[in-house]
Amino acid sequence: MKIDGVPYRSVWVDPEDGWSVRIIDQTRLPWAVEILRLTEEKQVAHAIKSMQVRGAPLIGAVAAYGLALALRRDASDAALEGVAAMLGATRPTAINLRWALARMLDALRPVPEARRADAAYAAAAAIAEDDVETCRAIGQHGLPLIEAIAARKTGKPVNILTHCNTGWIATVDFGTALSVIYQAHDAGIPLHVWVDETRPRNQGSALTAWELGKHGVPHTVVADNAGGHLMQHGEVDICLVGTDRVTRQGDVANKIGTYLKALAAHDNNVPFWVALPHSTLDMSVRDGVREIPIEERDAREVLEVTGQSWDGRVQTVRTAAPGSPGLNPAFDVTPARLVTGLITERGRCDATEAGLLGLYPEFLANVAAE
Ligand SMILES: CSC[C@H]1O[C@H](OP(=O)(O)O)[C@H](O)[C@@H]1O
Predict the structure, then answer these.
(1) 203 in ligand 1 pocket by Cβ < 6 Å?
(2) What angle do CA 113, 118, 124 make, to 5 degrees?
(3) pLDDT band at 2 (very low <50, low <70, confident <90, very high)
(4) Could you say which of 110, 130, 150 is where a domain stops?
(5) Could you report the predicted ipTM of this complex, rounded to two decimals?
(6) Least CB-packed of 155, 213, 334, 356 within 10 Å?
């Protein structure tokens, strides 16, 4: 996607040296576009843990490049396995991280050490390119949903509510739920996006609002707790969100607060659609509420907030009463019964095992083997 007319991806190999890895530091957005140069796997691990890069598909792609960086220095079996395990432990909920590292290990274990680094860069690039094409396709398969609503609204904008950030900076490019929004906007469909601020890290107000503004998409930032009210008053035509892991029965792990939005949507008969690439599927898990590990982040993210002061300085201030403890679960799980449907790169389906197997029959073998 473009930043002020200049095309960017959210991760890339530096063309100057051909091996270091470039990322946009998302903790500096929307106040500054700062490009970081990563040269070793520890920097990649920090970037993922600190959310300099975040977003389920993106952290998988960046971890893949982190493994390639490590293998430049040490391509031994021990290094391969050890660095993959270290990077895989950075964040527990998004299955894309494990998916990408498993794909890298499958590709690299058979390769002789002398050729492993080159093979790792090729495998990481393949993951990145797969994500770009996958996210583009997600947008295409979601577009008919917006077109159908637009047809009923006779020229009035389609009102879409989204949670967290599922845009091009949550993926290698295009995004997932936002890929649908971008394609509908670019197709000339009048639309408006309610952007959940998405406490506590404000991925909505800081990242989604920034992305949509750069692309000229009409939007309004709202408090997370406003969504139910908007739905009660007919101000939301559809909810479109991303996900960090979808289980075999269609349960959806996503940013904390998604479950509450889904409950409000269900109560107000608002369609609740979830966009995901194949790398977000976890067919090894059935009951998401019981089985998906929920990342618990530093409570300071809840007790404090980072923003820009009137004199332009980016500061972090405490908003909670001094001395009060906090709790910071970063994700929740929306049961499949609250999900209207899933939008994937292969098409749309019900949030059910049958729906997913219809789009991904290759997983049938796994299920049958159980
Ligand atoms: C395109 S999926 C993005 C997904 O990841 C986000 O989590 P985080 O910002 O903590 O990495 C959020 O759950 C989004 O829906």
Answers:
(1) yes
(2) 115
(3) confident
(4) 130
(5) 0.98
(6) 155
